[in-house]
């Protein structure tokens, strides 16, 4: 089916309390593993892209890859720009057929974040494209953004409520709740009570950033409290590299590049399927498709 916007399927997921996996792609082989893994489990899926990945491959080639793969499967597939501060990059995504974008003004003072988000919101809404926005400082490294763990700031509940009332058509909202990008150094300290309070006061689906390394129980608690979009990036990137290394160690004489590409594809796809099962979205493609009927 054609690529879809995120909001309808995330609303369905929020209502039914399952999570839709949002994997950060790296190249065409990575996209193929994400879409095929979701297809094999009959699950809706979100393909996310970092700004640095766009700068490597370009807006249009990425859109063409995902559009072509989505057109060959009968599951909802959204193409989403992950953390972005650059409105020109957002405009480029909108102009080349992406279905969702994120403006990340979380490192700005609240009022400035609101003002900048308003510009992105108006652009996306006018084009029928979903928008994700963020409040609070999520720790760790994501793309070119680094926030030290001791400098991470939990989202203020009242600011979150005010923010979401200002932008009622947001596709998804990302409050900082104690998770972190990258791999955790110690036990994650998730502010479940804060998440539950935010969820009780807004109608917008919530995005869980910093999913790599959380336990199944932690994922389930967050999903039960409104996190219908669950981001996975660091794990996918690590598997992208280690799958090549594993084949080299197993078969040091292997000189056929396609063997490495196939090994990488299978390893990435296995991780995609594992996360889909954990988030409870296996077999949910029909439920998500109904949101677009």
List the main descriptive attributes of the protein structure presented here:
alpha/beta, five-stranded parallel beta sheet, 10 strands, three-stranded parallel beta sheet
Explain what the structure shows.
The protein has helices spanning 6-16, 28-40, 51-57, 59-70, 87-95, 110-127, 157-166, 192-201, 216-224, 234-250, 257-279, 285-290, and strands at 20-24, 45-49, 77-81, 100-103, 130-135, 140-142, 145-147, 172-175, 206-208, 227-232. By secondary structure, the protein is of the alpha/beta class.
Concise overview:
With 293 residues, the protein is of the alpha/beta class. Helix content is 49%, strand content 15%.
Protein structure class: alpha/beta
Largest sheet descriptor: 5 strands, parallel
Spatial shape:
globular
- Please work out how many helical segments DSSP would assign: 12
- Record field, number of beta strands: 10
How much β-strand is present in the residues? 15-25%
User: What is the chains' assembly state?
Assistant: single chain
Give the uncertain stretches in residue-range form.
Answer: 145-151
Distance between the termini: 12 Å
Order of helices and strands: HEHEHHEHEHEEEHEHEHEHHH
Spatial order of strands in the largest sheet: 3-2-1-10-9
Secondary structure topology:
Elements: H1 6-16, E1 20-24, H2 28-40, E2 45-49, H3 51-57, H4 59-70, E3 77-81, H5 87-95, E4 100-103, H6 110-127, E5 130-135, E6 140-142, E7 145-147, H7 157-166, E8 172-175, H8 192-201, E9 206-208, H9 216-224, E10 227-232, H10 234-250, H11 257-279, H12 285-290
Parallel strand pairs: 1-2, 1-10, 2-3, 4-5, 5-8, 9-10
Antiparallel strand pairs: 6-7
Helix pairs in contact: 2-4, 2-11, 5-6, 7-8, 10-11
